[in-house]
């Protein structure tokens, strides 16, 4: 097929001159977006990348014990390793002990198998007096961990530079000595419970928010301006108040001697000496999170309802539908984009919520985010915190994907 | 079968929204079965409120509305069985054309095969067969309008209400839809109450027109009567073009009266709403009833000066200064034997006294 090239009036091919004409605008557009792009890259993409990286990064120990791992490579994991391995370990550990930089090693190996910490500490004290040669005996005399195969296996298991052990831990799984994936002991399975509780709380908070928001949003959309503005302010006022203030006010309200409990006692539902616990458990988390996330449901619903002409409901009724039928067949289906947006927003916010469960949730009301915070701040197992964070991120993306399949993201209106 | 003369009856109906202003005042209106009645009036005249009361979306503050001799004030809208076409069509945007039409049939639990026949019939009535699977958004304004009409008719209501249904269409489409709705009405004999503020639409389509102003029906009569014989100044002004002279009745005898105009001249007029000498009046005269240089003897004959000539294609419009009124409009058909019309020229203008109607003063 022959194609005649179209030329612009100055003789250049049309495509070229078009590009030339558009170039300036393109550069302008790129320059305008550049700051935001950079900002997002630095504050969002890089930290997330770092998080992903940290969650699988296990090179620290590989760098600290290079000789040991090299020597352990040939070990068959059946009997205690031979002298060469002990010698290699001495070579690695002695400088660490001398420089007083062996601390990180204790923590890392103790995650792998408890008992390492105390064993290594003792070794650390004694290693200075080790004599040359016959390291195996000297180590074995120092601490009992050095004459147990399990500890050597555990040490060997830390050799790979990259590890997904943290992810297994997040799902209450672990490697056993033979590097098979097994469940952790029953009494140590806490993460599954946390995940389930987080999903459960997020789900019910979404449902509560929806049930409470729908009528409010409908009122907002249909009331005359002067009332709807007032109501809008009532909806937004908590939104403008600090999260901390709102949560602490719930603490005031929900405490055992608080007004809500007083009211329950006054109604005679509970005895004065047997006041129900409304806080520091899942109830407190539900109540406070629902209240705090309410505006995120009301606003998308409102913005969609505002666009639904009141004549549609009238048409439904005039065509013979009872108010209920007109609502179910006409009004409700038209609000689905708002419901979708609101539910997705509330669910995703709820699944990663931190401050509220931390303050009013107590032990039985704390969520996965609180565990992440704990590992960031207290246990300093950043790798594990990163792994949990990544799992949360993947979870949210999965929900988004499922949601897109079910409702269709095009059907979502955020206002 | 004799037709019910009072198929729809408004009996002394008042309506107020805020307890301060009456939007509809003591409305009495009878509509015959099978009739096409238009409620015509400027915005805020209460016509839409009347329609909404009939549909059941507003309740009368006082008085009763009867449909086929039954009081309907206590019947909710969905039980009234009245079809309605809304101003913005109010098609359900999430349903196809078929589903839109099926809605009133489904809620009435009509079996599917019967419903399909009715839908097919209704769509063929508005010549939209083959559009069943389309969504309303995929249709043009005129097509949406047709679907709305079909939907309001598909469940065979005895009464159909239309609230400015053609307001959003362009002029050509509006005119063709006017005929279409009129033909549908004629072919199925349904009673239609139509609300519009467009007088030409009302004149084209209706059997009778109720002109609303200020919450009251000013005149209820057939289009020609409304145009030729308006009963008061408002109707004369609102329907068609109108030339007016303000003055006082100086003499009255039988079917003519003399009116002394503010300019001092006297003209002969038809006393419609003036009773006795000394009454203030506004004399109304349709532009086409005044003739330039009349050959026949006419009982009003005056000299005027052309102020402006406006070419309108099929006719030319003259603005003339006549008897102190410098916005007197004349229409001259553009035929080959045209007079020499130029701005600034003096011309003779004549008309019959029965065409100049002495109405209530403005």
Question: Could you please describe the fold and organization of this structure?
Answer:
The complex is a heterodimer of chains A (415) and B (362). With 415 residues, chain A is an all-alpha fold. The longest helix of chain A has 43 residues, at 14-56. Chain A has 19 helices and two strands. Chain A has helices at residues 14-56, 59-64, 66-72, 83-99, 103-112, 116-126, 135-142, 149-157, 165-170, 191-222, 225-240, 243-254, 259-267, 282-306, 310-318, 323-351, 355-360, 368-377, 382-406; strands spanning 173-175, 181-183. In chain A, helix 1 packs across helix 19, helix 5 (103-112) packs antiparallel against helix 6 and helix 14 (282-306) crosses helix 16. Chain A has three domains: 10-57, no CATH class; 59-161, no CATH class; 191-411, MetI-like fold (Orthogonal Bundle). Chain B is built from nine helices and 20 strands. Chain B has helices spanning 47-55, 77-80, 97-107, 112-125, 141-153, 171-188, 199-205, 223-228, 233-238; strands at 8-16, 22-31, 36-40, 62-67, 70-71, 82-85, 159-163, 191-196, 208-213, 216-221, 243-253, 256-261, 266-271, 280-285, 291-292, 300-311, 315-322, 325-333, 346-351, 357-359. In chain B, the strands form four sheets. A six-stranded mixed beta sheet of chain B has the order 6-7-8-3-9-10, sandwiched between helices. The mean pLDDT of chain B is 85. The chains are: A mainly alpha (415), B alpha+beta (362). The A-B interface holds A 309, 311-312, 314-323, 325-326, 329-330, 333-334 and B 55-57, 76-84, 86-88, 90-94, 103-104, 107-108, 151-152, 155, 161.
Total domain count of chain B: 2
CATH fold node name of the largest domain in chain B: Rossmann fold
Largest sheet composition of chain B: 6 strands, mixed
Q: Nearest-angstrom radius of gyration of chain A?
A: 31 Å
Q: Helix- and strand-based class of chain A?
A: mainly alpha
């Amino acid at each position: 097929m022959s194609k005649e090239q179209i030329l612009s009036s100055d003789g250049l091919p049309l495509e070229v001159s078009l590009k030339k004409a558009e170039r300036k605008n393109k550069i302008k557009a790129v320059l305008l977006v550049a700051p935001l792009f950079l900002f997002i890259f630095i504050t969002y993409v890089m930290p997330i990348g770092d998080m992903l990286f940290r969650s699988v990064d296990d090179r620290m120990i590989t760098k600290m014990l290079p000789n040991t791992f090299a020597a352990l490579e040939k070990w068959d994991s059946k009997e205690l390793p031979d002298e060469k391995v002990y010698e290699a370990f001495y070579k690695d550990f002695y400088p660490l002990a001398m420089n007083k930089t062996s601390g990180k090693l204790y923590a890392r190996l103790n995650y792998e198998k408890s008992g390492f910490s105390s064993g290594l500490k003792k070794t650390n004290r004694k290693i200075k007096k080790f004599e040359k040669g016959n390291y195996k005996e000297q180590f074995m005399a120092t601490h009992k961990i050095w004459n147990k195969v399990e500890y050597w296996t555990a040490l060997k298991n830390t050799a790979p530079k990259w590890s997904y052990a943290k992810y297994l831990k997040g799902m209450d799984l672990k490697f056993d000595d033979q590097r098979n994936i097994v469940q952790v002991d029953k009494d140590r399975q806490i993460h599954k419970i946390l995940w389930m509780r987080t999903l459960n709380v997020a789900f019910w908070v979404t449902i509560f928010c929806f049930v409470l928001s729908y009528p409010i949003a409908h009122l907002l959309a249909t009331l005359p301006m002067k009332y709807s503005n007032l109501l809008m302010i009532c909806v937004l006022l908590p939104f403008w108040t600090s999260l901390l203030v709102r949560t602490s006010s719930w603490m005031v309200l929900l405490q055992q001697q608080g007004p809500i409990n007083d009211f329950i006692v006054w109604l005679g539902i509970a005895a004065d000496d047997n006041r129900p616990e409304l806080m520091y458990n899942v109830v407190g988390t539900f109540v406070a999170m629902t209240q705090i996330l309410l505006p995120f449901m009301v606003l998308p619903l409102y913005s969609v309802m505002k666009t639904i002409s009141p004549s549609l409901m009238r048409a439904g009724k005039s065509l013979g539908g009872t108010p209920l039928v007109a609502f179910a067949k006409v009004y409700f289906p038209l609000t689905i984009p708002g419901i979708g947006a609101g539910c997705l927003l509330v669910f995703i916010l709820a699944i990663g919520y931190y401050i509220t469960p931390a303050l009013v949730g107590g032990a039985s009301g704390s969520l996965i985010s609180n565990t992440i915070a704990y590992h960031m701040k207290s246990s300093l197992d950043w790798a594990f915190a990163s792994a949990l964070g990544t799992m949360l991120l993947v979870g949210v993306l999965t929900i988004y994907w499922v949601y897109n399949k079910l409702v269709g993201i095009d059907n979502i209106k955020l206002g | 079968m004799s037709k019910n003369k009072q198929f729809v009856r408004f009996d002394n109906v008042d309506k107020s929204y805020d307890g301060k202003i009456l939007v509809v005042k003591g409305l009495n209106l009878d509509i015959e079965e099978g009739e096409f009645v238009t409620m015509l009036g400027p915005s805020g005249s209460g016509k839409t409120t009347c329609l909404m009361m009939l549909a059941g979306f507003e309740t009368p503050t006082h008085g009763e509305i009867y449909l086929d001799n039954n009081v309907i004030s206590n019947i909710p809208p969905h039980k009234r069985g009245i079809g309605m076409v809304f101003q913005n069509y109010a098609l359900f945007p999430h349903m196809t054309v078929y589903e839109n039409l099926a809605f009133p049939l489904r809620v009435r639990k009509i079996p599917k095969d019967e419903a399909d026949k009715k839908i097919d019939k209704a769509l063929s009535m508005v010549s939209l067969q083959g559009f069943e699977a389309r969504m309303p958004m995929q249709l043009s304004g005129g097509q949406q309008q047709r679907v709305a009409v079909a939907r309001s008719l598909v469940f065979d209501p005895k009464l159909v209400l239309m609230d400015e249904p053609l307001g959003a269409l362009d002029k050509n489409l509006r005119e063709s839809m006017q005929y279409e709705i009129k033909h549908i009405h004629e072919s199925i004999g349904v009673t239609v109450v139509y609300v519009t503020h467009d007088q030409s639409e009302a004149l084209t389509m209706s059997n009778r027109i109720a002109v609303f102003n200020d919450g009251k029906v000013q005149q209820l009569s057939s289009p020609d009567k409304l145009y030729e014989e308006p009963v008061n100044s408002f109707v004369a002004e609102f329907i068609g073009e109108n030339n007016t002279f303000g003055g006082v009745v100086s003499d009255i005898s039988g079917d003519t009266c003399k009116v002394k105009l503010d300019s001092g001249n006297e003209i002969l007029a038809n006393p419609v709403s003036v009773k006795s000498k000394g009454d203030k009046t506004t004399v109304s005269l349709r532009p086409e009833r005044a003739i330039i240089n009349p050959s026949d003897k006419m009982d009003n004959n005056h000299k005027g000066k052309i102020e402006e000539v406006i070419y309108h294609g099929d006719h030319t419009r003259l603005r003339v200064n006549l008897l102190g009124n410098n916005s007197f409009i004349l229409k001259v058909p553009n035929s080959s034997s045209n007079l020499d019309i130029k701005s600034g020229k003096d011309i003779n203008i004549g008309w019959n006294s029965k065409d100049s109607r002495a109405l209530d003063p403005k």
